[in-house]
Design brief:
7 helices; 169 residues; two-stranded antiparallel sheet; 4% strand
């Protein structure tokens, strides 16, 4: 198993079924409670554990998930309100070095819970037409909202698996 991709690399689906979208939304909606259950009782030592050499530690992973999902939420809202907007990327590793990554993980877990509550509500109420709306990255690659839902469901599960690996004794 490749510890960098414990659940495999993301494969962007070209064809998306309604049942897939429902499953991905469920994964997004349950991530905060799954993550909280996994990390609620961790002490400072366990929060500094990594899943492989030179990787982010558990604390950084939790804060990163929130940063990434905030960006994902905003990208979808932009796609819903603008015609194929170009979205900004960000330097994830640089963000992981900012001082707010020293905050207690409880802060990010609370934010993730609220964010995912709003995000899930939005996603569950999208029309078929809205699910086909797109945004694009600066390199010109387009992503439909339905594909973005798949991406962020995978992303949450990907880093959840990293945290599980880091906590294995």
């Amino acid at each position: 198993m490749d510890n960098r991709y414990p659940i495999g690399q993301f494969e962007c689906p070209n064809e998306v079924q309604k049942k897939d979208i429902q499953m991905w939304i469920k994964e997004i909606s349950t991530l905060p409670s799954r993550l909280n259950a996994l990390t609620v009782s961790l002490d400072e030592i366990k929060l500094t554990k990594t899943y492989r050499e030179n990787s982010w530690n558990v604390r950084q992973l939790i804060h990163h998930i929130v940063d990434s999902h905030l960006n994902g939420y905003m990208r979808i809202k932009l796609a819903l309100t603008e015609e194929n907007p170009v979205v900004k990327t960000y330097e994830e590793s640089e963000w992981a070095g900012l001082t707010d990554y020293n905050l207690p993980v409880k802060v990010s877990l609370q934010l993730l819970k609220s964010l995912h509550e709003r995000w899930t509500y939005l996603l569950e109420n999208l029309t078929d037409t809205q699910l086909k709306r797109t945004y694009q990255y600066p390199d010109g690659n387009k992503m439909r909202i339905e594909q973005s839902i798949a991406l962020y469901a995978w992303h949450g599960n990907h880093h959840f698996a990293h945290i599980q690996l880091a906590l294995k004794d």
